[in-house]
Design goal:
Length: about 230
C-alpha cells in the first residue's frame, strides 16, 4: 500500500514539529503549511489523504479552510481533523457543522491523535465487503462502497460523518441507537462528544435528505432510529 500523505496546517512551530514527528514515526508522509492560504495551495496541487487543521491561523482561519474544502467537489472527500485550543461546546459543534470529520483539542496526546487519524482513514477507505453493495429503502439509495446517497435518483452531498450515521441507522431499521452508541460506532470510544453535536448532525442529515429525512425518527429520551 502506498504511503498516505497528510497535510498539516499549523502556525505554531512546536506543535507542527510534534505532529509531523509522530506522523512520520507512524509511517505517514507529511506536507506542511503555516497559513491557510499556503495550505489551500498545497491541497489543490498535491491532494493529501487527510488534513490536520489548526483552527486559529493567520489570514484565512481554520473554519473557513474547512468550509472551502467541504464545499469544493474536488476536495470534499478529503477528511479533515481539526486540532485547536478552542474547546467550548459551541466551538466543537461549529467545526462539525462545517464538515470536520474529527475535532481534537489542545493540549493533546500524540497517541490519541494517531488513533483518530487511523480511524478516519479506515472509515473512509476500507469498507468491509458486505458494506460495498448499494441498497435501497423506498426512494433512498445508499452505496457504502462509493460513499454516495441519492433520493429519487438525485445525488445528495453528505459529510463523511453524516454518511456514516445514515448508514448505521439504515442498516438496522427499527433499532434505537443512543447518541453515545452512534458516536462509538462511527468515531470510537475515545471520542469526546456532547448530545448536542449528535443532534446537529441529525438535523443537517434530515435537511439534506428532504422528504426522505422522515425516515430518521427521534425516540424521545433515548436517541434515534430508522423507520421500519
Amino acid at each position: 500500500m502506498a504511503t498516505r500523505n497528510i497535510l498539516v496546517i499549523e502556525d505554531e512551530d512546536d506543535i507542527l514539529e510534534l505532529v509531523t514527528f509522530h506522523l512520520k514515526l507512524d509511517g505517514y508522509s507529511t506536507s506542511i503549511a503555516a497559513t491557510g492560504e499556503d495550505g489551500l495551495r498545497l491541497l489543490r496541487t498535491t491532494p493529501p489523504d487527510l488534513v490536520i487543521l489548526d483552527r486559529m491561523l493567520p489570514g484565512i482561519d481554520g473554519l473557513e479552510i474547512c468550509r472551502i474544502i467541504k464545499q469544493d467537489a474536488a476536495t470534499r472527500h478529503i477528511p479533515v481533523v481539526m486540532l485547536t485550543a478552542k474547546s467550548e461546546e459551541i466551538d466543537v459543534i461549529t467545526g462539525l457543522e462545517l464538515g470536520a470529520d474529527d475535532y481534537i483539542t489542545k493540549p493533546f496526546s500524540p497517541r490519541i491523535l494517531l488513533a483518530r487519524v487511523r480511524a478516519v482513514l479506515r472509515r473512509q477507505n476500507t469498507p468491509s465487503p458486505e458494506e460495498k453493495t448499494a441498497y435501497q429503502i423506498q426512494n433512498l439509495t445508499i452505496h457504502p462502497g462509493r460513499y454516495t446517497v441519492a433520493v429519487d435518483g438525485a445525488p445528495v452531498e453528505l459529510t463523511l460523518t453524516e454518511f456514516h450515521i445514515l448508514q448505521l441507522l439504515s442498516q438496522r431499521p427499527g433499532w434505537v441507537f443512543s447518541r453515545y452508541q452512534i458516536v462509538d460506532a462511527i468515531r470510537g470510544e475515545d471520542y469526546i462528544v456532547t448530545e448536542r453535536s449528535v443532534d446537529v448532525h441529525i438535523v443537517g442529515l434530515r435537511k439534506k435528505l428532504g422528504d426522505a429525512g422522515q425516515f430518521i425518527e427521534t425516540v424521545r429520551g433515548v436517541g434515534y432510529r430508522f423507520k421500519e
